[in-house]
Amino acid sequence: MLGLMMAACKEDKAPEVPDAGPVETGPSALTEKEPNDRPDQALDITRNSTVSAELTAQPNKADEDWYRLAPSSPRIVEVSVSGLPGGDITFEVYDRDRNRLVGVNSEGEGKPERFPNLYVDGERFLRVVPARKGVGGAYTLEVRMRVPEDGEEREPNDRAVDAVNLPLGQTVTAFLGHAGDEDWYRIELPDPSQPAGGDGTMPSGVQGAPEEGSGQDGTGQPQGQGGQQGQGGNGAGGFGAQQGQGGNGAGGFGAQQGQGGNGAGGFGAQQGSGNSGADGLTAQQGQGTNEAEGFADQDGEGNTGAGGFGTQQGQSDTAPGREGQDGQGLAAQRGQEDTDTFGREQDAPSPTLEGTFGGSEPPAVGSAAVGAAIARALDAGVPAVPPEPPSVALKIELTGVDGVSPELSVLSAAEAPLFSLRGKEGETLSLRNIGVRATDRVVYVVVKTSWVGTGKNARRTFNATMPYTLTVSQEEAGASAELEPNDELHKATPITAGGYRQGFLAPKGDVDHFVLKTSEPVLAKVELTGVDRLDLVLSMVEPPEGESGKETVLLRANDGAIKEPERLNNVACNGTCYFRVEGASRKVDGKWVKDFENAEQPYRITITTVPDNGTEEREPNNTAERAQDLTLGQPVRGTVYPVKDTDFFRLDLSDRPVRTPIRATLLGILKVDVGLYLHRMQPDGKLSLVQTADRAKGDQPESIRYSAEPGVYFFEVRDARNRESNFQDSYQLTVEETE
């Protein structure tokens, strides 16, 4: 019994704790020991330490002190060197092979130098030296070490080869700790041709739901628009998705960077599978077609269907070899006969009809009318507008640092500049839709300090105590995002007819340009949605002629105020047209400024087009020099928009031998008191007003009867009071020869 009790007591004894060694209670106090002017004589520093040292003033050379940083495991090291009385001190960092990594000399005489986040894995050498010969004195070296944390910059990273890997969507914390500090980050972009996983889905921010008006699955509804950034419509006439599944209905455009449409009349996919329906476009870098008139997709399989751009559920007169699905022709949809190749009535539009485009809205994106337009362009020998190369839009957020003016750049893998911006002191930058090429797999984001001041007073700002954070992510808008930088015309973001782009006005003073390219004359309707806190301006801009020329604003819409949309109607485009989105000027403290910005809510710019067949006005036509020619007996429609819009029409009667009696009838519209004014061109080129009709009777018609001598005449249409506009309803002007 006694033995058992003794054994039990022995087992209950607490186990011995192994010796953990000495506990650090504070930084080690060290003293520099000469000689230490070479790396092999360096003083070892393995933990938090404070070193008392002195630089000897020597007339022929500068004294130097070497220290070896050798922690037992990887550490982030903060290095501080006190100033020299009456002298300027500097220090440098070397690797284990004595290669210089970085030098710090940001302050002036008598001031300390600091490096807040040197990464040490193994060993690093410090060299402390005066900035010039003959200077010396006592100084203190402070070394503080800590364990590295995730999401933390590791210095030095001032070259591409030393760049910190920054995954999309993650945040890094870093310092602009000295005047020469430059931080490089390596961003790996997802491959748009590869799904995010094994389930066939696209990466986040690429796939999404269809837009409004998308084609319906199974029902085959005509004129459906395929999804943007997601599943394309399966109904007839749908565009295939951008970066997603293409439409399966007839007349569909195949997807960009995704599966092409399977319906008749579809365009093949870009970087995806081509269409199996009739009349796809021929592949570039892909398989050729197997049937006559087949145009294969880009980077994908060719089309197997033959023939033309068909319509759905309708009969019409079409050219040979252009019959569509189920023997249907080019033009009409759902039983519409006797139409031209664009599905538009050949007779003049009825005066009772309303709308911007000849009494009706333009055909839906991907409809048979769009396919017919392409077919006519091809028949006429006009080359199709080549597709723009795919791009990726990035969102970059950089927090501000007190006293620091940051400079941010985006570089390609070859270190070619793609984007750059200088921020104001302490400013937080929220940059949206920074465009990079989708073919690039790697880009670099570089953050550094900007120069401030001029001449001898120029310096680069820094802050060794306050960190910044950087986050780079992919925009959710995907292929529909604007692409910065686009603040100049030659950098304009491409936009397609029937498509849209989402953009941001940020930072303050941002200006965005977009370019529409067409293969035939069209009339475009440009719509810009409103944004909270922004008063947007939408303009059509003409590039400068010659190197020293200036841009010309042809049209400008700013009818709306903050949060309200803007529009441009009946814009004539044949080839290349440029549009500008910017904030309006406002007066603050007696000065006109453009300080609108909103980096959270995007605007959307949308362009729809119809062929220009002469029955609609062609903007810009606000001067006699840009007047549109009139044909006697042929009505023309137009809108009074924006406010103070003026439309000129030219009637040439100079070849008439005698007077010509004419009657001009202007059908009014709601809201606007339209006025009609007849001018005659004088021999000196100036206009003289000869008759008016502006009773201001609301939507009542106006009429002018005049016996015109041989010459050139101009009809002017505008709001009689220059205070109202109407973007929706169209007036109609008809000039006829009478008895």
Automatic annotation (TrEMBL):
SUPFAM superfamilies: Collagen-binding domain. Residues 46-59 have a biased composition (Polar residues). Residues 215-277, 302-311 have a biased composition (Gly residues). It comes from the Bacteria. Residues 1-59, 186-364 are annotated as: Disordered. Residues 31-41, 335-347 have a biased composition (Basic and acidic residues). This is LPXTG-motif cell wall anchor domain protein.
